[in-house]
Write a structure and sequence with these properties.
This protein is an alpha+beta fold. Helices cover 58% and strands 16% of the residues. Helix 7 (209-225) links the parallel strand 6 and strand 7 (231-233). Helix 4 packs across helix 5. The protein starts with a helix and ends with a strand. The strands form 2 sheets. It has a 6-stranded mixed beta sheet, with helices on both faces. The protein has helices spanning 2-20, 27-75, 85-102, 116-123, 125-142, 166-182, 209-225, and strands at residues 106-113, 148-153, 156-162, 185-187, 190-192, 196-202, 231-233, 246-247.
Length: 250
Amino acid sequence: MLGVLVGLVAPAGLAVVGLLGVHQFDPLELFVVMAVGGVLTFATAGWMIGRRDDALGARNDELRLLSARLQALSATDPLTGIPNRRSFDAQLLIEIARSGRYGASLSLVMMDLDHFKALNDKFGHRAGDEVLRQLGRLLDAEKRTGDLVARYGGEEFVALLPHADVQAAAGWAERVRQRIAATPISFEGGTLQITASFGVAGAAPDGAASDLVEAADAALFEAKRAGRNRVVAGPSNARVTGGAMTAVKT
């Protein structure tokens, strides 16, 4: 700002002095003064513009970072830290379309914690939250590259397994079931033992997302009805209704 003032005031002062006849300026002197004033003016103006651009750039970076954080929050379950139902619904549509286009296998695993309400009633909701947190970490550690595990709602979780048929998905679910049953949950100096039930279904080449979800949910219901702590595989084609279900573990 000082440079702008000097650059503007100095030539103006010289002009006033010249008009009043106080001093006769040599043309070279006038040229030098005007040149220096112009340099100071433009240099200061450039510096100010640069500062403004830097400030705008920093502000834009902050806004982009905030936007990324908000997007991550909208796609992540805040309790478990894994993707939420919204992320799962979006990815399911993508994988269903890919499976239908290329004929690739796609399976869905739905999982529900056994007797979770009783656990909450007995040990409190803080214990239930800790169970969900540790279960989220376990599921995230068990997924393959390209898989999606998400919290579907409450004590229910899902795993979307591209390029896995029902048999492979059932094997994955059984491995996870065994690990859950064998992993005590640490809570306030003690441990909690939990189990889970699993329903598995495979997508039809031209099936809808809702068909796959309904088939996996039906298999999960059968697993709970049959005594819980087991994996039940539904029809390999999610559009088949009334198909046989196979209990992987009883």
